[in-house]
Amino acid sequence: MNATAHDLGTSRTLWDLLARRADLTPDRPVFLQHRRRLTFGELRDRAERTAAGLCGMGVRPGTVVAWQLPTRIETAVLSFTLARLGAVQSPVIPFYRDREVGFALRESKAEFFAVPGVWRGYDHTEMARRLGAKGIFEAYDGLPDGDPELLPAPPADGTSARWIYWTSGTTSDPKGVLHTDRSLIAGGSCLAHALRLTADDVGSMAFPYAHIAGPDYTVMLLLYGFPAVLFEQFALPDALDAYRTHGVTVAGGSTAFYSMFLAEQRRQPGEKVIPTLRLLAGGGAPKPPEIYDAVVREMGVQLTHGYGMTEVPLITMGAPDDTVENLATTEGRPPRGMEIRIVDGEVLLRGEGVCQGYLDPAQTAEAFDEEGFLRTGDLGFLSGSGHLVLTGRRKDVIIRKGGNISAKEIEDLLHGHPDVGDVAVVGLPDAERGERVCAVVERSPGAGEPTLRALTAYLRAEGLSVHKLPEQLEVVDALPRNETLRKVLKYKLRERYSGTVK
C-alpha cells in the first residue's frame, strides 16, 4: 500500500476517509454509471447537503435508518449522508420481500425507511406501507437538500456500532450483524492491500451496494482514488458495453461471475472479451482450481480469490504475486491484524475487521468464544506459507455410515469433468446410511447428459475414495442461486430431493 493509501487507512470514520480523499483528489471520479459520473468532491458535497436535508426531517446521530435500494449513485450518496450524520444504517438487499424486510425493520427498530419506489416492476413503497414501516421516503424522487452550515460536527468515534447488516437467512431468520466504521475500513484496507491496485485502475460493482461488499469495495476506492462502474442490474452480455466503454481493469464478484465472464470469452476465443481487463477478483463462494486455470489460460488475466462473510467483510485475499498453486488452491493470506485460529478443524477469527456481534445478545454469546474469537462454521487449515485452505462448512459435511465426507472435495473434482458446468453436492437423509451423497449437476453448454456411472468412474480415476462417491445424480438446467453473489442455495436442493431415492 503506498504512503497516501496507508495514511488514509488510519481514518477513524468512513466520513473522515471520504473527506480526506475529497481534499486530495476532488475532481477524480469515484462512481461511473451509464453516462453519469460522480467525483470524490461531489460525493462529499452532495452527502453534506443531503445530510442537512435529512437532519431537517428528524434524522440525528444514533437514529436508525433502514434502506432497501439498488446499486445507483444516489444509494452511495445516501449511505455517506448517514455516515456524515452518525446515524445507524441498516442496508437491506433490494431483492428481499415481506418476510426478510419486515424482520429487518422490526429487529432494527428502524425510524426511517428509504425505498426506490417501483423497481423492476415491484412496488417497494407499497410493501413498506403494508409492513407498517415508519418514516418512509423514496430516495430516487430526489433526496432532501439543506444547508451544510447548519449541520452538527461529524462523528469522531469509529468504534460505535452504526451499521446493521443482515445474513442471508436461507434456513432461518436473518441475523442482524453489528459493524463499526473501523471494522468496515479494516475490511476494505485488506482488499486494497492484497490486490495491489493503483490510481490508474477502473473497478466495477456488479453486486448489490447493500451487500457487505459495498462498503468493502468503496473503502478501496477511497484509499487509492480510482473509480468503479456501478451496475444496477448485472447480466452478460448486456453489461459488456459498460466494461468496454469505461475501460474496466478489475472485475469479478464471486465464482459464478468468473464462470459468466469465462462463458462470454469462449464465444469469441482469441479476442479478449474486455480488452482492458487485467484482473478478476472476488469471493463469497468456493473457487474450484479448474475455474482458476481456465480463466488465466483462456481470458489472459489474473484471478485472485478471497474469503469473507457478513460478520467479517474480508478475512483473507489472494495477491496477484502469489504462486500459481496458492492462487488456484487457497483463499489467500490474512492481513496484519487478522488472527486465524483453527480449533477442531473450524476457522476462528479475531481482529479489527470482525463485527461486534449481533443484535441478539444470545446469538453473540453463542458465536464468540471466551477469548473473543468468532466461530465461523467453516472448516479449513493454514498452509506452511500462511495461506488459508477451506475444506467445507460444518453444516456441509455429509455423515455417511458414521464417516465425514466433504462436499467441497467432490465438487472440486467434478468441476474438472467436461460435461459439468457447475455442481452442488449435498447430503440427503437415508434410513440405512444416515445420509447419502447426492450430486446436482448443471450441464456445460452443448454438453451431453452426464450419468451417475460416468461421473463416479471419473471420480474414481481422480483418486476419490469409494466411500465418498455420489450415490445419486440429479441434472438441472440451472442451480438455484441467491441474487447477491449468486451463491448456490443448497437448502433448496435438500428440500427438493430429500424424498427421492435413486
TrEMBL record:
For the keyword Ligase, the answer is: yes
Keyword field? Ligase
Q: Biological process (GO) annotations?
A: fatty acid metabolic process
Q: Which Gene3D superfamilies match?
A: 3.30.300.30, N-terminal domain of ligase-like (3.40.50.12780)
Extract the GO molecular function terms from the UniProt entry: medium-chain fatty acid-CoA ligase activity
Domain AMP-binding enzyme C-terminal, by residue range, is 409-483
AMP-dependent synthetase/ligase domain ranges (all copies): 19-359
Q: Where is the signal peptide?
A: none
Specify one Pfam family: AMP-binding
The similarity comment for this entry is: Belongs to the ATP-dependent AMP-binding enzyme family.
What's the protein called, per UniProt? Cyclohexanecarboxylate-CoA ligase
